[in-house]
From TrEMBL:
Species for this entry: Paracoccus stylophorae
SUPFAM superfamilies reported for this sequence: RING/U-box (SSF57850)
Gene3D superfamilies membership: Zinc/RING finger domain, C3HC4 (zinc finger)
Disordered as annotated region, ranges: 1-21
Name by which UniProt lists this protein: UBP-type zinc finger domain-containing protein
InterPro entries for this protein: Znf_RING/FYVE/PHD, Znf_UBP
Superkingdom of origin organism: Bacteria
One protein family per Pfam: zf-UBP
Domain UBP-type residue range list: 1-89
Length: 89
């Protein structure tokens, strides 16, 4: 299967410099913690991953329908489409 939502990616894949010091704003606001960070490739929203207690990246997708996220973790360069449930190349 090939992701059909690539045309919704308007934000470039984050560089190593973009990843330094990144936080999940919703977790910071509530005093919660996160495991890993993801960035929305449609609008640039940064949220915590599905392994984090609050799953803010997924919640952002559920409310915005922006389908593709990328890892904000150092040395990780993958993207994922929630709708197609697959890695995006």
């Amino acid at each position: 299967m090939t992701c059909t939502h690539k045309n919704m990616m308007t934000i470039p894949r984050p560089s190593e410099g973009d990843k330094e010091g990144a936080v999940c704003p919703e977790c910071v606001e509530t005093g919660s913690s996160w495991v890993h960070l993801r960035i929305c490739r449609t609008c640039g929203h940064v949220g915590c991953c599905d392994s984090s207690p609050n799953r803010h990246a997924r919640k952002h997708w559920e409310t915005s329908q922006h389908p593709i996220i990328s890892s904000m973790e150092p040395r990780e360069i993958w993207s994922y489409c929630f709708i197609d449930d697959e890695l995006v190349k």
